[in-house]
Amino acid sequence: MYKAVIFDLDGTLMNTIADMGNSMNRSLEKRGLPTHTLVTYQTFVGNGIPKLAERSMPEGYGDFEGLLQDFLDDYAHHYADDSEPYDTVVATLTTLNERNVPIAIATNKKQEYTDGIVEAYLGDIDFVAVIGDQFDGKHKPNPHYPLSIAQTMGVDPSEILFVGDSDVDMKTAANAGMTPIGVAWGFRAVEELKMHGASQILASMDEILTFF
Hints:
Structural class: alpha/beta
Helix content: 40-55%
Mean pLDDT: 96
Largest sheet: 6 strands, parallel
CATH class of the largest domain: Alpha Beta
Radius of gyration: 17 Å
Order of helices and strands: EEHHHHEHEHEHEHEHE
Distance between the termini: 9 Å
CATH architecture of the largest domain: 3-Layer(aba) Sandwich
CATH superfamily of the largest domain: HAD superfamily/HAD-like
Number of helices: 9
Shape: globular
Strand order of the largest sheet: 5-4-1-6-7-8
Number of domains: 2
């Protein structure tokens, strides 16, 4: 029934919350603003870096653009300090490659950072496409890039699993006509994923292999 998989990156393939949170906290501290715990940042991420900056700053703070730029400057040097793939991710992706299942990444992380992380930690995996936020307004849950990936794969969207850890990913899957699959280990609660349409929750990444 299914022929391909598109994965989210942060909170799905990679645990990146420490690097994102630490970079934002350094950016906030630089401006004398209150910082947040990494647990709190798990609720701030998922909608792209500008939204992360907006959620991190105090209500009424007047220099959003400055804070955003501070984060971009800091994160550019620290996006792979403490990030790492989740358990069984590399082995599972390798097996999907061996089974000739087309796989891709669609994330709201800036393309530069996406490419760097994938090269550093998933460089031996063959992805049909790795697409990050192009800052063109077409980031998830807009289905534009997932549908573009489907076209590149030559696979009908209805035959693609979209795997992610947030409501944004579940909405993206629905908007693209793909099957939404949630993960239990990500940044958001399982209840949130179910509420937003997850057809199944993976307890570990290797469970995706049962579809192929």
